[in-house]
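User: Hi! I'm working on a homework problem where we have to compare a predicted structure to a textbook description. Could you give me the structure for the chain below?
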Amino acid sequence: MIGRLRGVLVAKAPPWLMIEVNGGVGYELEAPMSTIYDLPELGREVTLFTHYAQKEDSVSLYGFLRESERRLFRDVQKVTGIGAKIALAILSGVSVDEFARLVQAGDVTALTRIPGIGKKTAERMVLELRDKAADLGGAGATLTTIPDDPQSEAVIALQQLGYKPAEALRMAQKAAAAGDDAAMIIRKALQSALR
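Assistant: Happy to help. Predicted structure tokens:
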């Protein structure tokens, strides 16, 4: 239903968020800790990729800062016995790239260290996702939408260069100045990283 949601962050009580959009309409979303940690402060604008889930007796909306997280959330739920709760636990316990590496390596022991993941579930994930593991990682992720501000564009580019999402965001925020385009922010962030 909703693929992307932009609004003002008005409440944050992990794992729940409240985003107010135009006209005072508020959406309550559940998000993994990887998203919660990287959110701006309350009262600031945020754009989230969303996943809408409808069951017989409930409707749920999930929010993610990165498309790669939303894709992993959807992919792991295709594994037998995994639902939204475990998918959120995975994203809260490990990065998308690290999860892809663990699945590709068949590291069941490391996967069981994620809260809520037992040995049988870890084995099923390795078995059912190993062929897709290369596509799970954030570095190879293809965005379904183009960021509409230079800083977000720079963050994505820095992630594609191998920087972790939180580190890429921090680098872009430090480097960005009023009027800078994405290329300038990236250049300044990389120069700063070399010092």
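For your comparison, note the following. The CA atoms of residues 65 and 110 lie 25 Å apart. Residues 68-136 form a domain with the DNA polymerase; domain 1 fold (CATH 1.10.150.20). Good luck with the assignment!
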